[in-house]
Design goal:
The chain is an alpha/beta fold. The chain has one domain: TIM Barrel (Alpha-Beta Barrel), CATH 3.20.20. It is built from eight helices and four strands, in the order E-H-H-E-H-H-E-H-E-H-H-H. The protein has helices at residues 16-20, 22-26, 36-44, 62-78, 92-101, 113-121, 125-137, 141-148, and strands spanning 10-13, 31-35, 82-85, 105-106. A four-stranded parallel beta sheet has the order 1-2-3-4. The longest helix is centred in the middle third of the chain and has 17 residues, at 62-78. The mean pLDDT is 96.
Length: 154
């Protein structure tokens, strides 16, 4: 079947097994796209649509950040870009962490753009790198929320 040899083939990182094996997958991929909603749901085993347990769904959980970092590190080793989609990308404090990690392609809904842009334009790249480093070293969800609180609004 004829096809465009230049067609880019990427991988959605939406389950922990893909993030955990990102190094093996990256060498066969042109890009990664982190689907943070599903990645959170499947990592934390929390159905965000189930009102009895949805309060446990939190994309800022330390396990999510570690999987994102593992994915980014694997992508860097193979020189492929990483983008982020899902609600997490539309949160200013998360966007700052992503920029700090070197993930600069963020997909978000249009109403979120002004707040994200405001936060990103109000801080230096070094500040965002420090923030992402601190978040990655945090041991608890509470600790992460405390680190991110000042970044939620300007």
């Amino acid at each position: 079947v004829p096809f465009d040899e230049g067609l880019k083939i990427g991988v959605m990182v939406e389950v922990p097994s893909v993030a955990l094996t990102a190094g093996r997958i990256a060498k066969h991929s042109d890009f990664f796209s982190l689907g943070t909603n599903d990645l959170t749901q499947y990592t934390l085993a929390v159905d965000r649509g189930n009102e009895k347990i949805s309060y446990l769904f939190d994309s800022f959980h330390p396990a999510i950040w570690k999987l994102i970092k593992m994915t980014k590190d694997a992508a860097d080793r193979y020189g492929i870009p990483v983008s982020v989609c899902g609600e997490m990308a539309s949160k200013p404090e998360a966007a700052a962490c992503f920029i700090g990690m070197g993930i600069t392609d963020l997909s978000m809904n249009a109403p979120s753009i002004p707040a994200v842009k405001s936060v990103l334009c109000s801080h230096t790249k070094n500040e965002m790198e420090k923030l992402s480093s601190d978040v990655l070293q945090a041991e608890t969800l509470k600790e992460i929320h405390e680190l991110l609180q000042p970044w939620r609004t300007i």
